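for the record, two folds in this file. i put them one after another cuz i was lazy. first one right below, seq on top, structure tokens after. the second one comes after a little note so u can tell where it starts
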Amino acid sequence: MSMTINATTRDDQGKGASRRLRREEQVPAIVYGAGKDPSAITLNIHEITHLLEKEEAFTSVLDLVIDKKIEPVIVKDLQRHPAKNCITHVDLLRINLKKALVTSIPLHYLGEDDNEAMRLGAILNQFVTSIEVSCLPADLPNGIDVDISGLAIGDHISLTGLNIPEGVTITALTHGDIEAHDQSVVAVQEPKMMAEEVEEVADVEEAAEGDEAAEGGDEEAEKGDSDKNS
């Protein structure tokens, strides 16, 4: 099922124009790419907010409708208000349906409740939450499912262990030396190992605080000697 973004062209630009649009419940946006000039457009705040509540909207080719003309696009970037968290600007990238695109897709970790090691207290360590892929727009997946139900303590899954759909390539594995770029995405570890890592961090922080206190004491002593001499 295709997802649609309705937009209108706009001529007025700048901060003042953008503020006026937001007061009118509109969002300033720009669409660019595919060898065409960038176009300033306006989106309805309610429509775009509702659309971007769906995770798949960020990993799907969308139909951008401007003056009854349809262009395939993806969401390239968006800005939100720091306090209100509402969308304040959207960047859309035009897509050539016959050329491969490069974008990030999320990893969906499945089977945590069925993992025996985790039921006994093991810890799941997720190193990666999304990966960059290259594929034709028609082959773009909304995400990659990673089944961790059968992992035992000490087991891990790397990039080459992911179940990637046909026609999709992980860009990190296209740089020649696959072994050097085949990073782990998830691992099951003993709780003790995680506790030791936390303890090491705490020891480093305590040592740093001790050094700061010692430096402060030296400064006070120097100040006292200076006061006596004066």
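(here's the note) second protein begins now
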Amino acid sequence: MWQKISIIIPVLNEAQHIQVFLLALQPLREQGHEIILVDGRSEDDTCTLARPYVDRMMSANRGRAKQQILGAKMATGQIFLFLHADTQLPPNSAQIILNALAVNQSHGSLWGRFNVRLSGQHFLFRIIEKMMNWRSCLTKIATGDQAIFVAKLLYHDMGGMPDIDLMEDIEFSKRLKQASPPICLTSTVVTSSRRWEKNGILKTIFFMWSLRLQYFWGVKPEVLAKKYYP
């Protein structure tokens, strides 16, 4: 049943890193999986540099949700894997996902996420990682940094990715967990800590939690997006 994974990648102005990122994914293409890159109208050479390394490329209005929604429409795999362009998958990631779904489908679990590790070396990152992974399994909510994967049928049954300006991963997880709890893989993806390092670790923690609390209390995603993408 589980054979082909569609890796859906929203990008924006990633020319500096895109080739190294995509080169690491080429073994997955060789295994028969597909890479779909959805550009949010980059103003650099992202698309030109990426084109040789993807199976499908398209443009969408800026916004991760819109880009991922379009990517899912174009996907031909039985499994969707939503991957950020600053996140590195573990070795044998496809087999890890396929095995996890095969084992858990009898329990109705058709979606999941990886544990996450931040790329920085500061000791605070190790604490943050553990809290993120623990919180995710406890609340059954995954974030985009954790490389969410989902069976295509469940994706459509639960209404797909919500088209909102921010917190789409949170809202998406809320939809999916109505059907089943996530498969919390212990295998680890490595995501860039550049935002944390640029803006300050503690400052970023408080900022992100502030956004999530505001969302919880009903602040509209488009209002939060203006704060996240100033």
